[in-house]
Amino acid sequence: MLSSKQLIDITGISRATLNNYVALGILPNPVVKAPVGETGRATRLGYFEEGAVDCIKEVQKLKKQGHSMTQIAEILGTAAVGAAPPAARKKQAAEVSSVGEQRSLTDLSIDASIDDFPGPAYMVSNSFELIWWNEKATSSFFSCDDNLPAELESRNLLKLLFGTPVARDDDHMMELLKPHMAAGKKRLTQQTLIKIYSTLDARQLNILKDSYDAVESLGEDPIAHYPMILSDGDGEPQLFDLYISFYREGILFTFSPIVLNDDYLLEFLGKRNYVINELLKKRKPYLTDVTVLVADVQNSTRICSELPAEEYFELINNIWQQSEPIFRKYYGTYGKHAGDGMVYYFFPQPDCDHKLNAIKCSLQLKKMMKNITQQWQSKKGWFNDMHLNVGLNEGQEWFGSYHAGGHVEFTVLGETINQAARMSDFARHGSVWATKNMLNQIPVEQRKRINFGITRKTLHGESVFITDTYSNLGNLLDDEGQNNRKFRDIEMLPITEIRDISLDTA
Fold first, then answer.
1. Is 342 in the same domain as 489?
2. Are residues 264 and 228 in the same domain?
3. Which residues have C-beta within 8 Å of that of residue 179, sequence separation ≥ 6?
4. Which strand (E) or helix (H) includes residue 471?
5. Is the model's pLDDT at 77 over the cut of 70?
6. What is the C-alpha to C-alpha distance for residues 412 and 399, in angstroms, rounded to an integer?
7. What average pLDDT score do residues 338-352 get?
């Protein structure tokens, strides 16, 4: 028998190529045992029958005749002694780890940085917009161009994959799309995908539809495995273990060369909080549509003065803890907590309107505060009403992160967040205020189900809520108010109060 090293020396192929021949069923699985008469760090080597030399020579002959590796696998796969039949190749590819030296990802110091992933790796949003990628992904998929467009919609992964050198023809493109479609099928309907990729040409759309129909949705496990064959620069197929990790913030694709033992990588990916924290720290700033929610506890100074310190912290923590699942329900991304205030961001989603998400979230926070008020009134025997005043605004802004040590804080740069913060400061008694511009971005039929407007004074001094109206903020200020001057720079901003929503999904 020949060791894998001897077989490589005789035939002149690379170890990766040898691994691929095994995975494709061209060669049988090697007999793995302790090396005989060889020294080195390997504790086990794969051994092949001597007939493997002739098989490899036949592969080389067929390649010169113009046959693809798929065709060669069909010709030689079932003829090879002990070779897996075509139906078993995918399973075999998933099980084989190495036909040569057994290595570990610990050799790569992957615990130091996610940038040290052994193969291409990238993360996409739930709409498949690229939000992080490593250098190996750049060279393998994105034509060595690290300067992708700043606009998030121009970083759509599947659009970029259609131009990747890996997908040389429709068949290769189909194989490349399948695992991405299996991941997308878990969160996106085909109709949503087609809407996202409406700019693709007819051929590309057909490939997209066919790949979507050809795969099953991945299960409920947070990490899925998908054997994957990619071609290198010379057209040689290379086998990878593709691991697809699902997070609330997006989907992570990690390609691991089949020659590596992936136990450590899986252990690393299993540290979900650590991984997502590291990914989000490295998330590249991008220009995106965003709805900003700024909320602040009204009269927090007075409440703080009336409570012992430990009870005040208990109250504020109670508010944050109860609000977190509400933000998660409506896809809110944490920005920061500043004292008793908070900032959250709502980004476009494939199957729902991020502006409506922010509105529904705000109104549910309002109901939450009523419950907390009742709980604390009963607990303390006091009569204080507690309110969370909310300002909402929508715009296109740069989104990025600040981080120090293990702490990550997200922020939006621009007037969108500044105006939302000022409206939160203007709001009183738990009211929710939004800009006219934001409401105008919502389709008319959906906007009709939102109860919004301005409270006006009649000639008799009565307060009347006039629906479907707006007002410049300055016109709503008390002329004698001592703090009015702080709103002077936004006094011409058209705003409205949102009181309720009747959407079925509210």
1. yes
2. yes
3. 215, 226, 228, 242, 244, 253
4. strand 471-472
5. no
6. 5
7. 82
